[in-house]
Amino acid sequence: MDMKQSWWRRIAIIALSAGLLAGSLPVGTGLIGKADAAAGTHNYAEALQKAIYFYETQRSGKLPADNRVEWRGDSGLRDGSDVGVDLTGGWYDAGDHVKFGLPMAYSATMLAWSVVEYRDGYENAGQLEEIKDNIKWATDYFMKAHTKPNELWGQVGAGNTDHAWWGPAEVMQMNRPSFKIDASCPGSDLAGETAAALAAASIVFADDEPEYSAKLLRHAKELYSFADTYRGKYSDCITDAQSFYNSWSGYYDELAWGGAWLYLATNDSAYLSKAIAATDQWASGGSSNWPYTWTQGWDNKNYGAQILLARITSSLNMPEAARFIQSTERNLDYWSVGTNGHRVKYTPGGLAWLDQWGSLRYAANASFIAFVYSDWVSDPVKKARYQDFAVSQMDYILGDNPRQSSYVVGYGQNAPQHPHHRTAHGSWANSESVPTSHRHILYGAMVGGPNASDQYTDDIGDYVSNEVATDYNAGFTGALAKMNLLFGQGHQPLANFPAPEVKGDEIFVEAAIKASGSNFTEIRAMLNNRSAWPARMGDQLSFKYFLDLSEVYAAGRTVSDVNVTASYAEGATISQPVVVDASQHIYAITADFSGTKIYPGGEGHYRKEIQFRISGPQGAWNPNNDHSFQNLGTGNVAKSAYLPVYDAGIRVYGQEPGIALVTAPSVPANVQAVAGSTQVALTWTAVPGATSYSVKRAPVTGGPYISVATGINGLTHTDTGLTNGTTYYYVVTAVNSAGESGNSVQVSATPQAATVVPGTLALTGTAGNAQTNLSWTSSAGTASYKVQRALAGGAYTDVATDLTTLTYTDATAVNGTTYSYRIVAVNAAGQTLSNVVTLTPSAPPATTGTLEFQYRTTGSGVSSNAVTPQFNVKNTGTQAVDLSTVKLRYYFTKDGSADLSFWCDYAQVGAANIEGRFVNVNPAKGTADTYLEISFKPGAGSLAPGAETGVIQARFSKTNWSNFDQSNDYSYDATKTAFTAWNQVTGYQGGTQVWGIEP
């Protein structure tokens, strides 16, 4: 049974048994139509896969055997030991290592809600078990932290102490105090949110794991009772949270939110009554004063609670339904079309921008609840409005923005590479700047996002724009599940995800000759622990210095004449030489750091030093034959593979004598890339010592690169399945048992279809006043197009050549003259002719048409990277007008050669029913070289006499997002800020001009 249907069906059954439900239940997915804003370039299954994976990177505690994050290990294993409670597990909050209970519980509730709503979206992407595993990781922790009916441990770790250290979670050394709420110092918000998470999760697991679901529900009921009985703000008791997650909104939102979820999980009307009663405390003066200018988030749950209650109370035919519906729509209108003349700020690129700190998480959260409500509301205009809004915001986050960049780490084009995240960065030096690049890819993490001007800097130190957090990803993940339902047909998650990372050296010795003489050698050595796959404590480390005493024995002396002393040691002991191979006189000296903590935790922690002197007989001492003396220099220490390192006696780095030293191969040279049709062939020259090669590819120059082939034994590779016309960037690396070389010099190639004559094309056209308008389908393999014209019975002549667009306006046509047109598609191999279209231009009728076209500007300014005209069409006649026969044109100067993109942000007749195209005015006419032609799909319906379409919010930009200068645009008028009949916008009905004056 479909879980989503089953839990709503349970509500319906209860309502029917009480005689409360009249008619059918007004819930369900409703009409789903692809919004114009939806992009076809995103793989929503992959994006969803990675967004879920992010939660696995945040895990604390003992990791499971199926852990997919190779750079994460066990951590926080003593959490709760300060109070004698096992508080291991749960999620680290963000790029830090505090376990804040309120945002963690909120994130779990949102993820569970998304499965309740969009289970099929996860299942279609092959990610249902993954999202359930991640929800369970959190809910297991909540039940562990709920140690008594009225006791809940709500935080582990102190915020300021934790944030003062920049290192990986696995080697934390600071004290991690535990904080709780109980009857003597309660937290209704924290307990209520945790109850909501467990109740929502109980619905997720009800069908597949009924015993686990029942356990979740038992804890949820106890926690809600605790929250309701002992009231107070949790941050008044867990005061450490005040600087990070203070409960600004109080606790009535969580009491309503938790009550609603418990009602959905139990069908117990007592919880519904408590939830509704809590909403009475949201604001004085009734529901008309409820806030609507924010959105769902870790602090305020009003916005999610009112949607749940709108659906529940409507299904029960309760009078309270109206206020929940009205409040929800006030909020969603504020985010989309505006409420009472107020609307959330929008960036020029179309992001609904609420606040600088994590701007994208608010847009993602608003998108998720807009999706949920649009699935339920029956009004088709509202359904389209809220869905279109959510789609536009999600695609902005994934890359449809002025920067043409993804804001999700490891996904899409130009994705962030420097998120504010300690463990992913992998610093060993307690420094955001060491190393300069992250050692790990934090796949799926949505960063905070751009400022109000669409500007963004990928900077690890910018925790406002580049923060990542579990609550940031929560609404985003749920909205991705819905996007996958809408647009993910045929999309697949990545196979073998995640790809193995290329590991660098982690534990090694750096050494140099400190001093030397005729009978001694003094070595300075530093044992490093820069581990990161995963980071780990080194408290049983040692290294060996191998020496060859052949010259000592040749002089009649023995090992007893050799002495080793340490002049300086940071927690190490030095041994005397111990025989390794008596026949060859090979001995080893061990520097043993056992019991000394060496870990990637900052200066003084990640490396420890020892200085030792080896003294031998006068005249019988020569270190040059010592295995470990090889390549040692004087001055600064340098990494040496000839001083092998051991962890608990097991060699983890370096070479012992008698083993041929294998070093990582050098970089492949002479890499070449040759493009074919849908493929690129790569070749390179052999690298000495390489046992195989890897080929890596990137969609943009400079990477990041993803492996497309590994274990290549030859010197060639052909990358197939590529898109013709797209440029790909490649590097090649050489591999052996010692590691992988650096990247080769980057090469690039652009696959092209095999050269044949252009493909077929179809021409259509319409006649206007002293002009004809032509458009044609794209012809495969075409380099350019020609427009040819002929009079009746005459020869064809060129009227336009070297066109790369698919439209043309012939402004030299004479009214009353019949012309035949054809298009010639041209490439190097030849040409292909289109069909012939015959057109006769004519003057418009002398009488005024029955349509009035109104225009207003949004006041965005003369210079902007987005032009945002708005229109209204009014039927002034006595007959209904089929809108599918109506078109309007807005004339402007293109100000450059970049391609143009059109969006309909909102239309009262439905944004999905609006289409826009751009047509060149050739030759240009005064202040117009291009026009935007807007038309209506059949779904827009007809316009009755006296009726109006209502606002049509258009927006267009250049693909390079450069600015327009609207001051010289024919149809632009900065003074028209209210709808006004405007004759410099032209209108057409059935191909005949009925309004305005063409330029």
From TrEMBL:
Enzyme Commission identifier(s): 3.2.1.4
Active site: 420, 458, 467
Domain annotation CBM3: ranges: 502-658, 847-999
Keyword hit for Hydrolase: yes
UniProt entry keywords in alphabetical sequence: Carbohydrate metabolism, Cellulose degradation, Glycosidase, Hydrolase, Polysaccharide degradation
SMART domains membership: CBM_3, FN3
Stretches assigned to the Fibronectin type-III domain: 664-754, 757-845
InterPro entries according to UniProt: 6-hairpin_glycosidase_sf, 6hp_glycosidase-like_sf, CBM2/CBM3_carb-bd_dom_sf, CBM3, CBM3_sf, FN3_dom, FN3_sf, Glyco_hydro_9
Domain of life: Bacteria
Enzymatic reactions: Endohydrolysis of (1->4)-beta-D-glucosidic linkages in cellulose, lichenin and cereal beta-D-glucans
UniProt similarity note: Belongs to the glycosyl hydrolase 9 (cellulase E) family.
Protein name: Endoglucanase
